[in-house]
Amino acid sequence: GGLIVWAELPEGMDAKALLDKCVENNVAYVPGTHFYPDGGHHNTLRLNFSNSTPEQIHEGMGKLRELFAAHLG
After folding, report:
1. Which of 32, 35, 46, 63 is most buried (most C-beta within 10 Å)?
2. Summary mean pLDDT of the chain
């Protein structure tokens, strides 16, 4: 169980740097670096789904997929 999903993006991607663009598209997450005492792990993120409908989750994941894919090199 749990109410979050932990995700790891490909090496070299920075979840914190991509957050503003995601928020502009009405989807958000918490950068994973904040959960490590020494920082780092910039390619990780935490997704909360405790207050979202299945439809909202599906829509949000689609937006994240598009935004992250646009930054893959």
Report:
1. 32
2. 94
Question: Model confidence at 1, in pLDDT bands (50, 70, 90)?
Answer: low
- Complete DSSP assignment for the chain: --SEEEEEPPTT--HHHHHHHHHHTT---EEGGGGSTT---TTEEEEE-TT--HHHHHHHHHHHHHHHHHT--
Q: Rounded to an integer, what distance in angstroms lies between the CA atom of residue 63 and that of residue 39?
A: 26
Rounded CA gap, 31 and 47, in Å? 9
pTM (two decimals): 0.87
Cα–Cα distance measured from residue 45 to residue 19, given in angstroms and rounded to the nearest whole number = 10
Q: How far apart are CA 27 and CA 24, in angstroms?
A: 8
Question: Residue 15 has which token pair?
Answer: 């979840």
